[in-house]
Amino acid sequence: MTTKDRGFLQALWDFFCALKLSISLLILLAVTSIIGTVIPQVPNIPEEYIHSLSQTKLQLYDKLGFFDMYHSWWFILLLYLLTVNLIACSIKRLPRVWKIVSEPTLVMDEAFEKSLSLTHDVKMKGESATLREKMVSFLTSEFAKPVVTEIDGTCHLFAQKTPYSRLGVYVVHFSIIIIFIGAIIGSYFGYKGFVTIVEGQSVDSLTSRSGKTIPLGFALKCEKFSVSFYDTGAPKEFKSILTVLENGQPVPGYINIPTIVNSPLTYKGITFYQSSYGSASEGGTFYFTVRSRKGGAPVKLTARQGDKVPLPGGGTMQVLESTDEVRNFIPQFSGPAARIEVATGSGAPQAFIVMRNYPELDEQRGGDTIFSYDGSDQKFYTGLQVAKDPGVWVVWLGCALMVIGICMAFFMSHKRVWIRIANGHVVMGGSASKNPAGFQLQFDALVDKLTKL
Amino acid sequence: MNALLFNLTMGAYFLATLTYLFYLFKPRPTLGRISHWVISGGFIIHCMFTLDRYLEAGHTPITNLHESLSFFSLAIVGIFIAFERKYKVSILGSFVTPLALVILLISALFPSAIAPLNPALKSKWLAVHTTMAFFGYATFAVAFGAAIMYLIQEHFLKNKRLGPLYQKLPSLDTLDEINYRCLTFGFPLLTFAIISGAIWAETAWGTYWSWDPKETWSLITWFIYAALLHGRLTTGWRGRRAAILAIIGFFVMLFTFLGVNLLLPGLHSYK
Question: Is A389 within 8 Å of B207 when comparing Cβ atoms?
Answer without folding.
Answer: yes
